[in-house]
Amino acid sequence: MKKPLALLAITLLLITSIFAQTIQSPDGQLECIFELKDSIPYYSLSYKGKPVLNNSKLGLTIANGPSFKTGFISKDPKTSSFSETWNPVLGEVKSILNNYNELSVTLSQPSHNREILVRFRLFNDGLGFRYEFPQQKNLNYFVIKEEETSFSLNGDHKAWWIPGDYDTEEYNYTTSQLSEVPSLFDKSYDGNASQTIVPMALQTPLMLKSGDGVYINIHEAALVGYAAMHVELDPKSYTLKSHLTPDAQGNKGYIQTPFNTPWRTIVVADKAEKILASKLILNLNEPSKIASPDWIKPVKYVGVWWQMFCPGQGSWNYTDIDNVHLGITDYKNLPPNKTHAANNTNVKKYIDFAARHGFDAVLVEGWNEGWEDWFGKSKEFVFDFVTPYPDFDPKMLNIYAQQKGVKLIMHHETSSSVTNYERWMDTAYRFMVNHGYNAVKSGYVGNIIPRGEHHYSQWMIDHFNRAITKAAQYGIMVNSHESVHPTGLNRTWPNAIAAEAARGTEYETFGGNNPDHTTILPFTRLMGGPMDYTPGIFQTRLDYYQPGDTRYVKTTLVKQMALYVTMYSPLQMAADIIENYERFPDAFQFIKDVAADWDDTRILSAEPGDHIIIARKAKGKDDWFIGGITDENPRTSDVELSFLDPNENYIATIYEDGKDAHYITNPQKYNIRKLAVTNKAKLQQKMAASGGFAISIKKASREEINNLKKRKRN
User: Fold this and answer.
1) Residue 143 is inside which H or E element, if any?
2) Pick from 503, 501, 169, 509: which is nearest to 306 by CA?
3) Which among 1, 347, 487, 658 is least surrounded, fewest beta carbons within 10 Å?
4) Among all residues, which ones are annotated catalytic?
């Protein structure tokens, strides 16, 4: 009996694995296997022969019908290859290679007479896959109860994580092993204006590092018409499972076929620098839908903003009443509070400063009626986005700005009353066009109206995308705050110039940002797209404004400068009060010089949570800029300039932490020096605790280099 039983076992094994399909990345280092076992779909991923993901289940649970989890047979598997080079409208590099091998498998459920397709794309830097639902007789409409995609990791990896939350990503990161998450979870978050914690779930992009040094980043791409994904953690098996954001009724998505889900992405590399260089998420998005994007430009700006966070420096509201009825309350007959910052005189001062120092634009917050009771009232008609306060003249100010070659940036805080914003959006955009605005910063602070919806539910994802696409029709660039994590849609809609969607500089005046925060964000939040982090705070201690105030920005002044290079964004704010830049004009020169759009980017050295050093070449120029930042630990790094043209000479202007600099005790101590360099140079750069360095490199003639040497001798 033993031989027949053994033969039967072998036969069963062959049957269960007969539908296995394998693809490799173009360079052959990554391998993805798809297979059906007992009619259940699985996939796995390996890198250089080592497992990255063990067999991981695929599928979805449906609220109004049978699930897409089992009962499948495989039919019509297809493989193909693709390679193209495309040029982003704005970006870190001039051109991007999009090269992958693809496997598509149609999965049929005979018992329900329906089918779905799973599509895998394997790049040299990772894997993307999605579910596709063709229109068919038995599958026209369905409601998602949950997506059951899993990521079965092969060990207790180190993780840089924030807790799952349906409404905010504005948390400091926790660094731990996956097995330690349960004991640390309740300590991983503080309060927020809108918050719905998801127990034992983590947000994506999630950065991981295996014990043998493989870096893994899990996220999603092309989030359209679908709820945003979190990942639930099983800390014993080290398995992550997708967890979609629900709507007010608890459902995860309402689908009409044909439909494609967002891509699930796994970026893999043996060096941290390769993770930062990956363009996989962008490549999984559709090409630009804006036929003539010439109006989309990088923006460096200052703004009436930071002063509202500094004690005694300004306010958003015009007066101090606490009960406003838009269209009824007569502001002209109310006493101004004399702290309102968005007044004509102050805005003119910022316009003059921007023009004098070569900035493109000025953001003005608090310009419109309604800020007196804008938050915490669950008020639907909170702003109309077109009615200015008595001391703000949008027509006059835009003419004044245009005469000086400066744009004004509109501010639309919705207070998360999204139904109200939907009603006013066309009117608000027309108002912008009529008054010369071509960019808007939108905000979604507080709980969503319609009540019960979440920031990352399907309904809100549709809204965020609708705001961007409608803005494109009006020729408007969008910088969204408190919005969903980006997923590379800035390729498709490059007018989505930046977003917040993480804990930015403003939190330095709330609970504070940890010194390692900006060494983690490029590996997490910025994997999906550029961030409006609002760096450039030179006056880091707030007791400068009010003696006894213990709050401070947890960086040195020089680290704030380096962030313009390490935190990629084509929208960069010099966020401090402008008088503080006038106190440090030599350091401010770097912010004036640094580009916001790039032809080339080199990740020179990086480790999440520790340090990042990046060099970038300005768009259409021969200028290079280097930024280096560190966590709370001081360190020294060697910076090789081998990326420079070997046939040219350069002068490097180096901005560095001073000898005794420290982010707590001596944050404003810095040195500036100039060196003649070539591509053979190696610079040894010291960084103070939570400090950094910023370097500007420009081509130089022999005469300029000789003059520099003479000045040094003298």
Assistant:
1) strand 141-147
2) 509
3) 1
4) 506
Phi, psi of 393 (to 5 degrees): -110, 95
Region of 241 on the Ramachandran plot (φ > 0 left; ψ -120 to 50 alpha; else beta): beta
Paired tokens of 433: 């066009």
pLDDT per residue as tens digits for the range 258-292: 999 999 999 999 999 999 999 999 999 999 999 99
Half-sphere exposure for 192 (CA within 13 Å, toward CB) = 26
281: left (phi over 0), alpha (psi -120 to 50) or beta: alpha
End-to-end C-alpha distance for the chain, whole angstroms: 98
Report the share of the chain in percent with pLDDT over 70: 97
Host H or E run for residue 344: helix 344-357
- Tell me the pLDDT tens digit for each residue of 1-52: 333 433 333 333 444 445 799 999 999 999 999 999 999 999 999 999 999 9
- How many helices (H) and strands (E) would you count in the chain? 13, 37
Q: Where are the beta strands (DSSP E) in 473-597?
A: 477-480, 498-499, 571-573
Angle at 479 between CA 476 and CA 482, to 5 degrees: 140
Measuring CA to CA, how many Å separate 662 from each of 517, 586, 673?
17, 20, 19
- 428, pLDDT greater than 80: yes
Listed residue (450, 586, 559) closest to 505, CA to CA:
559
- Give the CA distances from residue 193 to residues 204, 247, 553, in Å, rounded to whole numbers and listed in that order: 21, 19, 21
* pLDDT, tens digit (0-9, with 9 covering 90-100), for 570-595: 999 999 999 999 999 999 999 999 99
In sequence order, the 6+-apart residues with CB closer than 8 A to the CB of 168 are 192, 193, 194, 195, 455, 482
The pLDDT tens digits for 323-380 are: 999 999 999 999 999 999 999 999 999 999 999 999 999 999 999 999 999 999 999 9
Q: Give 239's strand partners.
A: 152, 234
**Which of 599, 688, 597, 709 shows the shortest CA–CA distance to 635?**
688
| Token digits of residue 563 | 């962030």
For β-strands 30-37 and 40-47, DSSP reports them as antiparallel
Burial class (CB in 10 A: 0-12, 13-18, 19+), 30: buried
Averaged pLDDT of the chain: 96
